[in-house]
Design a protein that fits this description.
alpha/beta; 5-stranded parallel sheet; 7 strands; Rossmann fold; single chain
């Protein structure tokens, strides 16, 4: 901490996406937890937020995971004590199986689909570790060699639905980061992957399918633009207002003073 004008100030966690670490380390935090209730009452199960980079989208996504994750119920008080939602928890607190996928840092080129599959597998492995750590069938599925992201996700959903018999909350962070880079360099490749038979189109079609079946209960998707999502599906096109990431007057002082 630093002392400025006889006041102790908390450190500002610039670029820190981990909500759990931010809270444990005692960093400055502008309380956005009241937006959890707003999100639940916004009128759609499939919202997405579009804002420029460094606007706290990943931190917000990780906050949602910490809030809804059944496996993290024991850490709820530590992570949300002193926040708005800690004092006003919604009925869905710690009630979901949460699958979080992060599509930042995916390299394009000839191995784009393979790199995308690897990122999906990383999220699925984390899910299995939290909810089905001893399940041999699920481990066998993850150990298989997959060339189609949609086939991987469909097989995972089918098996998870049978074994868990309850729906999940799907969070996708930076859904468009790699797609925007491809669009700027190779528009033809972008059209191919988001077209009718493209791997990205079929991937999101799988999510939409299992949402209609009731297994994917809710989604939360973050990105920089809506171009990629608009190109693929009309099922996830309810944008949230920008004030989710605004800083109200006086909030910085409240957050930084120890």
């Amino acid at each position: 901490m630093f002392k400025i004008m006889q006041q102790e100030l908390k450190q500002v966690p610039y670029g820190e996406p981990s909500f759990a670490y931010l809270r444990e380390a005692g960093y400055a935090y502008v309380d956005k937890t009241h937006f959890i209730q707003v999100l639940e009452q916004c009128g759609t199960r499939f919202p997405f937020i579009v804002r420029p980079r460094r606007f706290g989208k990943s931190l917000f996504a990780n906050m949602l995971m910490a809030y809804y994750d059944k496996a993290a119920a024991g850490d709820f008080d530590e992570r949300f004590s002193g926040t708005w939602v800690g004092d006003h928890p919604t009925p869905w607190a710690s009630k979901f199986l949460v699958l979080k996928l992060d599509f930042s840092g995916i390299d394009g080129g000839d191995r784009l689909v393979n790199n995308f599959v690897i990122n999906v597998l990383t999220g699925l492995e984390d899910f299995v570790k939290r909810y089905l750590p001893e399940d041999s069938q699920m481990q066998e599925l993850l150990d298989e060699s997959w060339s189609s992201p949609a086939a991987l996700l469909m097989s995972f959903f089918r098996l998870a639905q049978r074994k868990l018999d309850e729906g999940l909350y799907l969070i996708i962070d930076e859904y468009d980061q790699f797609a925007q880079e491809i669009l700027s360099k190779d528009p033809e490749q972008f059209r191919a992957m988001t077209g009718a038979e493209g791997f990205l189109k079929t991937f999101y079609a799988c999510i939409k399918n299992y949402a209609s079946r009731g297994f994917v209960k809710r989604t939360f998707i973050t990105g920089v633009t809506s171009i990629s999502l608009d190109s693929m599906t009309s099922g996830f096109n309810r944008q949230l207002p920008a004030f989710f990431y605004s800083l109200p007057r006086g909030s910085l002082k409240t957050a930084t003073v120890a």
